[in-house]
Amino acid sequence: MEKLLEVTIKTGLKTGNVKKSELKRLSVDTTVQEKAICFPKDARHYQRMREKLVSKANEYGVRLRQSYVRKGKRALVMHGRYAHARQYKRAKKQLKRLKTYLGRVTRDIERKIAFREGVGKDFEKLLSLSHRLLAQQCHGKNKPYSIHAPEVICISKGKSHKRYEFGCKVGVVAQP
Prior knowledge:
The protein is an alpha+beta fold. The chain has helices at residues 2-15, 42-59, 69-84, 88-113, 120-135; strands at residues 27-34, 153-156, 164-174. The chain is flat, with a radius of gyration of 22 Å. The two termini are 19 Å apart.
């Protein structure tokens, strides 16, 4: 927080928005900048990550052994149905299927792009996020909460109407 405050003050002085006389007293507060994400569910993450990898592979002409488009969609729908009906063993089986499909597509892409020049850098970010998803534990740390915004973290604020918020911590400095 001190580093953030220091950078903010230096920027304000440089741009002329803040005068040295105004720096005698400042109010600092932190809050959560919420991101527009759905509530994170592992099944949806596995499916979305697999879809992104397959579309990127198609974009670069990487021919996959199998893309699991229909099977992945079916497994995601069935996972939701089983979980809603409180058939958690069946839902867990579908979740495992989705994770298997993602792992197979990830490994297939890694094998195919290993021999291509310049393609690996474009897949690097997606593949690293895919490995994070595959290695995550249910209640572990370093769990990605969003595919399109991997910097999102879960913050518990203690509000009665909203226990958790998904976003980034932000520091706000103001002059009273």
